[in-house]
């Protein structure tokens, strides 16, 4: 009873644990889906995406899920990147990478995530102007993607490396990487990566003043983005086409494309693209002499940029407003915007100074981390060497102790050898005497065995004779029984010859007894005789068969007695009838 209670209690505990585990996995799955939705809000609502990412990190930490924990760090880093808070993004991404680097081996899913994080870190280094560090991060990312044969990751990294080479002024390497990225994207038929590579190629041709190829590639990029319904990408491509026309002084065409960009930006709610479109529309209208339209668009752009803290864009717009009011000869407003531009310029200078400071701090922290890692590695090596030295000392001490034990064992063996030699001589003498006794005992044992064999032969001979007698007796019994039955039947037939109809039923009964009750023992008797003959041929005496033979004979005797009784009964009846007749 107690065992049953314990077993039931254990089963209940197991079910509860499974339910809790399933519930936790379900919660984590739900948060992973919410994280996927948050990634769609990275550019339009980065603050909301950041809140989801923070909650996702808490759940992943509580559940101790390695992939979700690292993915949450990556998502939070992307959110901070969208918000322009590069230091926060870098710290989170670096924390995730350090966590992965501490693992001895990583599954493919975590390796892919590590490549994604290295991409993001490389982009931060690129924005900070730390180009060697950015190239190192991109190289590490593409090495992982090539090992995993991840063509998507390879195409993405080649694209980013092309941008980095363009920043570094190496235009040849830049266009080479863009084309390689485009080829990889076409192999896997990824239209998003194809559109990005074509857009970068268009920017390269724009910088080279080859506006025809620039517009051609931008139009290809635009078509692909429309196919995948990437509205934000469509807005960017339309804006870039407008800028290319503006560089050629074709401001009307530029304005046409910028209005399309503005409409899509309003639809998707991308404030940065929308404010940039308003500002470019104001600048282009000013170029063609539409002063009022220029004032309208620049004021809208200024209000939107100021409201959303787009400092760099606000500074550019204030410069355009200053130039506009100079053309309108409203020097008071021009001075106002000039002073505002200078203030924003100082703010940007301070921001750049802060960025450079953060860049220097990041480099210092990185160097400190590398130095700390090297120090820990050296300490580990020294500790390993010290442990090895102590292990060698312990092994030497152990070998010395073993050597002393071996010397002691050798002396003990020598003493035991002398003692054993003495005992061996004594045993040799004893063995000679024992051998003589053994030979005498063997002779006696052989005599006993011979007598035993003779006795067995005699017993077998007696058994064979006894079996023969049994067979002869069985044959005589069988002949006697058959003769008796025959005589009885003959007598019954003679007596019933004159009175056949009357005694027909009685004769049938006797025939039934003869055909069933008599034939069965006779068949059994014949079978037993055959078995006994087989045993006799093999020299075997089987008492069980003899017992069966005896029982069969008794049964035959009982059947003959029944037939005789029935016959006597008929005789008595005939006598009674004859007496009555007389």
Query: How would you describe the shape?
Result: elongated
Q: What separation lies between the terminal Cα atoms? A: 92 Å
Which ranges are low-confidence, i.e. pLDDT below 50, for 5 or more consecutive residues?
11-26
Describe the main β-sheet briefly.
none
Q: How many helices in DSSP terms? A: 18
Strand segment tally? 0
SSE arrangement, N to C: HHHHHHHHHHHHHHHHHH
In helices, the fraction of residues equals over 70%
Describe the protein's architecture and organization:
The protein has 582 residues and is mainly alpha-helical. The protein has a domain at 471-581. The chain contains 18 helices and no strands. It has helices spanning 2-39, 46-63, 66-83, 86-101, 108-127, 131-147, 151-167, 171-187, 191-207, 211-227, 231-247, 251-268, 271-287, 291-307, 311-327, 331-495, 504-537, 543-581. Helix 2 (46-63) packs antiparallel against helix 3 (66-83) and helix 4 (86-101) runs antiparallel to helix 5 (108-127). It is elongated, with a radius of gyration of 57 Å. The chain starts with a helix and ends with a helix. 29% of the residues are buried.
